[in-house]
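## Example record

The block below lists the input lines for one assembly entry, exactly as stored, with component labels intact.
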Amino acid sequence: MLQIISVWIAGGLTLCIFSFLYGDNPVYKFAEHLYVGFSAAYWLIYVWHFTIKQMVINPIVAREPGAWMLIIPLFFGVLMLSRWLPERYSWISRWSIAFVVGIGAGIIAIGQTQGLLLPQLRATILPLATGNWMTNVNNFLVIIGTVSTLTYFYFSRRETGLMSKFSRLGIGFIMIALGAAFGYTIMARISLLIGRIIFLFGDWFHIIKPL
Amino acid sequence: MIFLLILSFTISAKDTPDDAGGSITINVYNIPEGTEQIELYRLTKGDTLFEEVGLIPIFKGELDDATVTDGVLYLYKATALTPDTVYVAEIKEFASSSPEWFNKSRTSVLLFIALFWVVILVYIQLAKKNPEGLFIRKLPPLEAMDEAVGRATEMGKPVLYVPGIEYITDAGTLASITILAKVGRKVAEYETRIINPHFDPIVMTTAQETLKNAFSEAGRPDAFNKDDVFYLTSEQFGFAAGVDGIMLRERPGAIFLQGYFYAESLILAETGYSIGAIQIAGTNATTQLPFFVAACDYVLLGEEMFAASAYISKEPRLLGSIKGSDLAKSVLLVLIGVGVIFGTFAAIKNVAGNPVYMEIFDRILEFLARTAE
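Predicted structure tokens for the full assembly:
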């Protein structure tokens, strides 16, 4: 019984959201507000249960080894609340923001260098005379595509002469890549739509056999 | 005199190097011929019974036991099973795991970043001495930002600014906050309203501070409405639904989608397009760029966002970092050029029957691949 009710609620809300295709209307508004409200509440519970309780309170209460280190994030977390204090003291919250931003920038620098820059460098250093002309053409396209795209993202020089031509070639490569990515993602979205239609006509109306 | 050396099946256990702890590396040597499988057992100090850890791959002769606790002492024993005999090897001393402060395998990353850091510092100093000396080319979407805010003002409609759905630690979100400051100043000058919904509370706090400063710089601190910078939800499509609702009900004249986006990018950009707003997007999420290019009037592509924030602020630090990153790109181009020439030369020699250069080339590529692991 409970399953039937939940299927009816899910199906009804799906139709409410689909009604947006006609235009903004009270039914869509209802589903939207319900969704936003529920998701905000869900995240509140999630943060309390999985972050504050499990990662801060429980280790401190259980006196786990190294739990004293949690005082640092806890301290910065409490500082964030100083935003509610009068203007004279609310600036203290910036310490927490500065801490998070600084750590984040450091992590990004390593991650981008190791995860993107060096693999790209490795993938572009390719020989152009492998003995197989198909591989040679492919390697040439990879090299010229990477070099011209890098040239497009060269900001501190005026785009004139050869640089301008290379930069235009670079934007050409970027657009081809974006077009391919667009088509690929549209296919993925259509599969999401198919999933919803199967739910509506299979699980709800029983017109088609659910997968 | 003949010495007969019999190599016996042995085992060693040591703390896994260059890790964050929680792992002991076990190696087995002189695996007996005909071994079908090697089983590994572990005895925790204080216990009396060995527990099974798993199988050591014979071809590798090595296994990382990642189920250990730092500081706890373990004794290991391995058994090599052949069709007719069971060979046993055991370590004599207890082993334990501990985290390392420095990961030596990433030394090249450190060197690269250190070099990059020095270059940027030099350019920052140059930018401080002569800010006009560092040129940054114009970006059309930036030029259009003032126009977009002006258009919204003329139409009597608000401006909507969405800073993406990533956290403050993301580079795109940080760049978005700088762009928000520019948009905020213009909004304050034109006395328009800016609506700024958020996915993350910390980004919201930063945005509130940024807009408050922007309004003060524009001489209109009184016009800043803290309630227009608000938290919506941290659920991806809940956020998208909420922002769509704002677009339909508030009908902003200009929409800025600046930051890191995921699958909601097309939903947002399409809705913005349907209400006829001028849209200026910018993201470092390469997978979402196609949708912004298709549905928005102007787009800042990836790194253009970071250049934009330097261009807007004219901050010596940002200008210097853009100049420094351009120099890093030049270095990369040179490295690619040298690598391709050497690789081609090695391939020609290899085809001609001399594989020495190809081996060197493969080693270089292997080194780069290892560094990127």
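The radius of gyration of chain B is 30 Å. The first strand of chain B starts at residue 10 and ends at 15.
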